[in-house]
Structures are given as structure tokens and as C-alpha cells.
Input
Amino acid sequence: MSNSFMGDGFTGRRSGAREGWPTASMWESFEQLRGQFDRKTGSRMGRGDVRAAVLALLAEKPMHGYQIIHAIEERSGGVWKPSPGSVYPTLQLLADEGLIEAEEADGRKTYSLTAEGRTVAEAAADHSAPWEAQGGRDSGRATALPRAGVELAQAAAQVGRSGNSEQVKQAVAVLDEARRKLYSILAQD
Output
């Protein structure tokens, strides 16, 4: 990575594209990096997992749809964030089955289990919740490190777009040091 952004043609001008600045290859590299970090490792859950997750959450307390989505994302460590397009139809289906009921307050529907829904949720309580089956113990590996890598790449790209030659040189030094420290972590026993 040493001197990876420092070319002899870098002029440091602040207008649009810089002569000699490898913008095309820099953005191509950034997109490759982003693609590697943004892989959706296990982010799609199986059929019925949204249903099981909704029942498990509503067994704890009544919630509205976006609370359910946020709770699933939080409990899965960011690995699984169901879309509104999967949660709201599931809520409607559960209501049609008589397992949940909705109460509207302040323009929001809050869902809670019916007596029959509580029975179904309690019967499923001995199984692990869908977000636990996803591998919650690896959630840091699956989300925190890739997110930090993407954020670092975005910051480097911003310095590359907006920084002067001295700022770019300083950024390269920081990135080189970060790379060395990351490899030293792997070298530890």
C-alpha cells in the first residue's frame, strides 16, 4: 500500500479530476474492497424465520413493525435485518390466523399476541430464536470488522478526492501503519 496514492503526476489542484491522479483505478479498487466487505454472509434467512422471530419478540412485549425490524437487526448483531416487505405481510398473516392483534395509537399499529398466539410462541420457546441460529457469536467477525474496513476505505477515498498532496502523503502513512498493525495482530499467538 506504500505510496499507492502518490504518483509523480499528482498536482494537488482542487478542481475536478486531477492530472495524473489515478481516480479510475482508485474507485475500482474501492469498489472491489466494498464488494468484499459488503458480502451478505448469511443475511437471508429461511422461510418461516420472520414468523418465528416476530412471535418470539411479541412474546416479550407488544411492538410496532419498525421496532420488530430493529430488534431483529440488533439481536442478530446486524447480520439479519428483515425488510418491511417481509415483516408487514407476516404481521398481517399472523393477524389473519388470530395469533396477534393490532391496536392503533398515535397513527401506529402496535401488535401483541392473542391467547392463541402466546400458546404458539410458548411452544416454540424451546427452540433457539432465528437470530441465534444465525451464529450470533461470530457477529463481530461478520459485521463489525467489514463495516470498519468500509468506513476506513471511504475516509481514504475522501482524502484522495479532497486532500492536498501533504494530506494524501499523511493518509498513506496512516494506512501503511494500520496495515502493519493489522498483520501484527495475526502474528500474535
Q: What stands out?
A: The chain has two domains: 1-41+136-189, 49-133. The CA atoms of residues 29 and 153 lie 10 Å apart. Strands lie at 100-105, 108-113. Residues 139-162 form the longest helix (24 residues).
